[in-house]
Amino acid sequence: MTHEDDILTSLRSLGIVPASACPSLVRLPGGVSSDVYRIDLASGPVCVKQVLAKLNVSADWHAPVERVHSEAAWFRFAGKIVPGNVPTVLAEDRASHLFVMNYFDPVTHPCWKTQLRDGIVDPSVAAQIGEIIARIHCTGAGSKAVQDEFAVYDHFTALRIDPYLLTTAKAHPDRAGRIREIAGDLARARIALMHGDLSPKNILVGPDGPIILDAETACYGDPAFDLAFCLNHLLLKCVWNPSHVRNYCKSFDALRNAYLAKVDWESAPALEARASPLLAALLLARIDGKSPVEYLTAPRDLDFVRSAARDYLAATELTLDGIRQDWETRALAR
Fold it and tell me: Cα 153 vs. chain centroid, distance in angstroms?
């Protein structure tokens, strides 16, 4: 039997595919940590996701396959708070480590990363994303039940702390102490439910608002990570498509402001104080960690990011606004 045959067997056992039917599986692009397929049923298309034990990157990078069930759980949790902004889980097979969700047509739900690449930069979209994530963080903050359900710290370590932060620390010995300090604080935090992979490639822009996908790194930890992770991508886009620097920075401000305006489980300045060094470390991690951004390859671009990020990590006082202002100045001066 092929891998696709195994998936169809699972879908038949879940009642998603009739026993007599044999629909084709269309592999969807972009999977680094999972196989994702579209399946056309009589009732319409659905999407099935099965995670990989070894990620599709050049580095030797493994992660627990059980993380797919944390993702399904995150969608169920978030769906009670922002039902129109996350997929609906239709079925789940724990033995095969897969789940089925509704399918979003790319014609009506384009990827935010694609829009940002093409210069379609709408700060109102960024603001909506900031508000959505803050609402989810707010609901899970301080909840022992949520913490117990998402106490999957080995997943977060394997997918974020080790490959992003600790790998980067090894590449920059003179900044390693600061990066390891940031990683240690992040690993110990138990504040709210994080998404863990809030990247533009994991966000669709639908007619009724953004759709947040790919929550397999969900964990109960520091919500500042989600904020820093997404803001990081907006800054990196300034290097990828320098003709839209000002609009990327406006989107940075819109997301940050909308998010911080909803923070009520702690003081917004306290959260920002953790997000700022995280942002600096993540900028460097997307160049010298195990998962570098694929769209920055020119030495000039890599050195630009390294220089700025290393300066931020050496700073004694750091704010999100300060990073954004300095980054914009540097980017416009290139």
Answer: 16
List pLDDT tens digits, range 244-282: 999 999 999 999 999 999 999 999 999 999 999 999 999
Tell me which residue of 297, 277, 276 sits closest to 287, measured CA to CA. Answer: 297
Judgement on whether residues 86 and 120 belong to the same structural domain of the protein? no
Over residues 17-67, the pLDDT tens digits come to 777 777 777 888 755 567 888 988 888 899 888 876 554 444 555 556 777
Q: Which of 84, 102, 120 is the last residue of a domain?
A: 102
DSSP state of 35: E
**Is 107 inside any structural domain?**
no
251-to-133, 137, 257 alpha-carbon distances in Å: 15, 20, 10
Q: Is residue 183 located within the same domain as residue 64?
A: no
Domain closes at, from 80, 102, 124: 102
Residues spanned by the domain of 268: 112-333
Instruction: Report phi then psi at 246, rounded to 5.
Output: -65, -40
